[in-house]
């Protein structure tokens, strides 16, 4: 946010730096995921774009490290579509070894797996590898990770894999073609702030404002209601609230009103295409899923096909688990 706009409204933090907002659902997920990790499992945390998966995973990592009962590893590779098994095994090795030999992961497959299992035994505690944006991992990598967990288990070591990604990942793992991995995966779904958008707004404004600044002097109750009704995730609320405050500063208005909120909200916010993208389905992936050309998917999303063909594609997507 513009620094002048922050001064104008008496804000001390930008909205995306407010911290960790926790609900009873968040607490439940933290407890269940921590318990499952200690059993040596593949675990998936699925949620739409901006619902708070990354922040929840960071909170889980902090809790595990504080407990000291689990070794925590994290993949920092950005382009997950190009990440192969050896890269993730290297990330695991970084966490398991703390000396100068951390980079010395053998290149030969047999020696590599033996090395990791040996290190796990020396640590004598469960280990978990966190992988964010896991919806971009290719199936071969997922299968390889599953087999690595089994190799550790056969050698009396405990290794878990914590994956986070779009709901698309959850649906893919439930497809028969990925049964080898999906049938062995524990899946959790993050609902985020669903049903608590109004409470989240109040918390956000309170945590980002100066001590004497009251939330109602920043945004009217009616404007908050519109934001809560139209928006579903922390990311959306933080983004559009920032736009609204910057626009209010530009025209010299305080507090933010309903008219100003309606002015900054995107008209296509909840159209089919952005809705599907939040769940991890872009035009290319949808075209591959139902075996049609991308151009036809674009026509479908813009309601430009004949009614019969629209219904046919809709039924195919619903059968594939696409959240239309």
Write the layout of secondary structure elements.
Elements: H1 3-9, H2 24-37, E1 42-46, H3 53-67, E2 71-74, H4 85-96, H5 109-123, E3 127-131, H6 139-154, E4 159-165, H7 167-173, H8 179-182, E5 185-189, H9 197-208, H10 221-230, H11 234-251, H12 258-264, H13 272-278, H14 283-290, H15 294-301, H16 307-319
Parallel strand pairs: 1-4, 1-5, 2-3, 3-4
Describe the structure.
The chain has 324 residues and is an alpha/beta fold. The chain has 3 domains: 3-13 and 194-264, Helicase, Ruva Protein, domain 3 (Orthogonal Bundle), CATH 1.10.8; 24-189, Rossmann fold (3-Layer(aba) Sandwich), CATH 3.40.50.300; 281-319, no CATH class. The chain is built from 16 helices and 5 strands. The protein has helices at 3-9, 24-37, 53-67, 85-96, 109-123, 139-154, 167-173, 179-182, 197-208, 221-230, 234-251, 258-264, 272-278, 283-290, 294-301, 307-319; strands at residues 42-46, 71-74, 127-131, 159-165, 185-189. A 5-stranded parallel beta sheet has the order 2-3-4-1-5, sandwiched between helices. Strand 3 (127-131), helix 6 and strand 4 form a beta-alpha-beta unit. Helix 1 packs across helix 11 (234-251) and helix 10 packs parallel to helix 12 (258-264). It is globular. The relative contact order is 0.14. The model has no long low-confidence stretch (mean pLDDT 90).
